[in-house]
Amino acid sequence: MPQNSISGDWTGIITYEKGYENIPSRVLHFEMNIVQEGEKIIGVAIYANGFGVNPEPADISGDFIDNRIDFLKQYRAYYYWENGEVRIDKTKPGLLIYYRGIYIENSKEFVGKWKVKYKVKLFGIIPIGIYPLRGSWRMSRK
Questions:
Q1: Predicted confidence band of residue 112 (pLDDT cuts 50, 70, 90)
Q2: Is the domain defined by 8-141 classed in CATH 2.40.128.30?
Q3: What secondary structure does DSSP assign to 69-83, as a single string?
């Protein structure tokens, strides 16, 4: 367990995997500030460099129980690709990104997986959730 609390500054990398096979550099470096109260965590993530650097911060909320961390990340604006360029719609929030990981005591870091859930309509009427984009992540204290 990381000193009983994970509150503080963390730094790490996100690796893009499923859905990003055609992108040459599939790593994104980030910094995250986490505040923990009991088993609940909240925070803000910012991105330093790499593929997918987003100028807006992302909000974090979730749980840290024993050595397991689960949280949602959501950008404050909706970012999407169109005609080979990143587009920004600041009138709506970004998609929810689901993170799950464990704390590795020997290396003093979290490691885990992430996925993005899209909602699509089957036959144009039945909403279903799919996870077409996935990857891995790791972070350690800054």
A1: very high
A2: yes
A3: EEEEEEESSEEEEET
